[in-house]
């Protein structure tokens, strides 16, 4: 009897401390890691997704966004996703090669997309979907494409004419197509993590690089680059990806809520991207630190022409048929 009352006392005390209510379920955490600043198209879209996920499945899910390579650099974040250390990423399409998804490098072909409308025919249509489906065998689910924008060249040496590029050391993302692109210009490409680019430009480890204005501006690259060519010669965008095991293990209603949040975040991402790039470019021009060159159509075409051999050299890497399919899709009215 004495023993029983002691145990009851213990239970009562425990109830007082823990308020004795049935245990509240902890939300499932989605760690979303990325490498760019918060005030970029990807940074903003990740925050938007977090907000929308909170609206639709808050309480059940908590999205934690880690920007600016706080958790992982480019290559590490891919490994972290596959190992389940993070659940969601939005790497640039140029960074899928090391995963074995070489087809994504098709987006890196120089002068392939004339504008955003042409690009969206691919990313927001069946070709884009088929590409995302290829990630399945890598233990990854592709959820959406998010825009950044078209890349411009920058360097501490002039980058106006094809001649100018010869012998320059230029940082690239880890894409073999980008490697071939820089070599076609007579430049020496160097793969480097995004988080290391500013310092490499500042210390002269490389002369220059290519990026959409939003990335160039938010990394303050214009402060360490003398020249830029608004060449818009190639595209940089993202695929939002999740660990497949994690995704398929979520309760169906949670997944539906997250899919809705992703759909809306994607519309938002693609809306803000254009504005961010325009504003970034205007701010860099206004700072007067970099000299910006606006090529004429003929000057841009001359640059594209020099990079054309990349199509022959790298066609087999992504599949020549895929390139033709994209060229056709882009050309349709
Ligand atoms: C880069 O490495 O230049 C970009 O992929 C960074 C990014 O995520 O936009």
Topology overview:
Layout: H1 2-18, E1 28-33, H2 41-57, E2 61-66, H3 74-83, E3 88-89, H4 116-123, H5 126-133, E4 140-150, E5 152-155, E6 169-172, H6 176-184, E7 188-191, H7 197-203, E8 208-211, H8 213-218, E9 227-229, E10 235-243, H9 244-249, H10 252-287, E11 291-293, H11 297-307, H12 309-318, H13 320-331
Parallel strand pairs: 1-2, 1-3, 6-7, 9-11
Antiparallel strand pairs: 3-10, 4-10, 5-8, 5-9
The structure holds (2S)-2-hydroxybutanedioic acid (LMR).
Residues 35-36, 42, 92, 148, 173, 194, 211, 215 line the site of (2S)-2-hydroxybutanedioic acid (LMR).
Ligand inventory:
(2S)-2-hydroxybutanedioic acid
Number of beta strands: 11
Globally, the shape reads globular
- What's the CATH H-level superfamily name? Bacterial extracellular solute-binding protein, family 7
Order of helices and strands: HEHEHEHHEEEHEHEHEEHHEHHH
Structural class: alpha/beta
**What Rg, in angstroms, do the CA atoms define?**
23 Å
């Amino acid at each position: 009897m004495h023993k029983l009352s002691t145990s009851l006392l213990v239970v009562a005390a425990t109830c007082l401390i823990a308020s004795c209510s049935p245990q509240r379920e902890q939300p499932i955490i989605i760690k979303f890691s990325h490498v760019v600043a918060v005030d970029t198209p990807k940074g903003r879209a990740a925050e938007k997704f977090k907000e929308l996920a909170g609206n639709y499945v808050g309480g059940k899910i908590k999205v934690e966004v880690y920007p600016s390579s706080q958790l992982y650099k480019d290559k590490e974040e891919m490994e972290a996703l596959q190992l389940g250390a993070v659940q969601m990423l939005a790497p640039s399409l140029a960074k899928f090669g090391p995963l074995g998804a070489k087809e994504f490098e098709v987006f890196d072909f120089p002068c392939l997309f004339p504008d955003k409308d042409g690009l969206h025919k691919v990313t927001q249509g069946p070709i884009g979907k088929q590409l995302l489906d290829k990630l399945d065998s890598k233990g990854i689910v592709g959820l959406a494409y998010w825009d950044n924008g078209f890349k411009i060249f920058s360097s501490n040496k002039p980058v106006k004419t094809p001649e100018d590029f010869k012998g320059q050391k230029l940082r690239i993302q880890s894409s073999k197509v980008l490697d071939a692109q820089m070599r076609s210009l007579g430049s020496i490409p160097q793969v480097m993590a995004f988080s290391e680019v500013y310092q490499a430009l500042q210390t002269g480890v490389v002369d220059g690089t290519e990026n959409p204005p939003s990335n160039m501006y938010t990394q303050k690259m214009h402060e360490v680059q003398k020249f830029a060519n608004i060449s818009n010669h190639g595209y940089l965008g993202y695929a939002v990806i999740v660990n497949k095991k994690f995704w398929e293990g979520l309760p169906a209603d949670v997944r539906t809520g997250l899919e809705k949040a992703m759909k809306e975040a994607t519309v938002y991402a693609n809306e803000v991207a254009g504005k961010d790039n325009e504003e970034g470019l205007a701010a860099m021009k206004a700072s007067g630190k970099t000299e910006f060159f606006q090529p004429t159509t003929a000057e841009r075409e001359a640059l594209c022409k020099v990079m054309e051999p990349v199509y022959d050299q790298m066609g087999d890497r992504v599949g020549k048929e895929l390139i033709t399919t994209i060229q056709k899709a882009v050309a349709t009215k």
